[in-house]
Write a structure and sequence with these properties.
Layout: E1 3-12, E2 17-19, H1 20-24, H2 31-38, E3 42-44, H3 52-66, E4 76-80, H4 91-99, E5 105-109, H5 115-128, E6 135-142, H6 152-155, E7 160-170, E8 175-183, E9 191-193, H7 204-208, E10 214-216, H8 218-239, E11 249-252, H9 257-267, H10 278-281, H11 288-296, E12 305-312, E13 316-323
Parallel strand pairs: 4-5, 4-6, 11-12
Antiparallel strand pairs: 1-7, 2-3, 6-7, 8-13, 9-10, 12-13
Amino acid sequence: MKKAAITGVNGYVPPKILSNFDLEQMVDTNDEWIRTRTGIVERRILGNGLGTSDMGAVAVKGLLEKTKTKAEEVDLIICATVTPDMPFPATANLISDKVGAKNAWSFDMGAACSGFLFALTTGAQFIESGRYSKVIVVGGDKMSSIIDYQDRNTCVLFGDGAGAVLLEPNKEGEGIQDSILHVDGSGSQYLHQKAGGSVKPASHETVEAREHYAYQDGRTVYKFAVTRMAEVAAQVMEKNGLTADDVAYLVPHQANKRIIDATAKRAGLPAEKVMVNIHKYGNTTAGTLPLCLWEWEPKLKKGDKLILAAFGGGFTWGATYLTWAYNA
């Protein structure tokens, strides 16, 4: 059976760095507290007047160049994001225009931190069905646009960034092998943006109440995330008969170092088999998984077995098992 394989990956993070020491000047926190509880040292921040599509477009342009793909050859672009440039049109539409993908149709997918996994699984269906031969999946968020820098519970966690992968048919067996994806809408009360949607449109009152920022019940979200992400990673391994020796790398969502460690422990994987860049970028939401793949690309070899796992607001969570299709 034809598989949908990742044949290239590229990423982008803004040059501006917001360190823990910078945050000490903005809110009641300190570097030691942030590092010991989250593993984050610094994060990247996109400038004013720029949006998620700007980061996504840079990532996609670099991806096209690396893979020697013409923009006109792209059939579909899916962008996973919860920070679209605007409510409409879709950020994926804007990325398509900025990179010159004139023959592609495109749409956004919102599944918070699990967004890239959901979009990757969706994009793979178009390849496996034989309908398309070149699908680009983008994961990116400008989280600084919805973070309250007066709220120390959330502002220390998030950063901005985007990554993109190219999916193409593979007849040798490499590619996306399996995915287990879940949602639980009852978790929305613990992690959401209170205002700005159709239920509570923007008003003077919502702005003054600072309700257009991400809200998180940290303890509850942590409890769910540490359990669900670890469980689903172990489940996809067990379902496909994989042991820790079989897996080259775990690619976990970069939300909290303790959650990453718990997921690795449940999967039986040592630290050297776990991709971690949370210390540099913080939680870039839908951007974390492709950014990890981008950074580790030089180390990946054809046939390497990878487990991708994520947990996000919604609640959403899932894991994907794939085999790498090329040598860097």
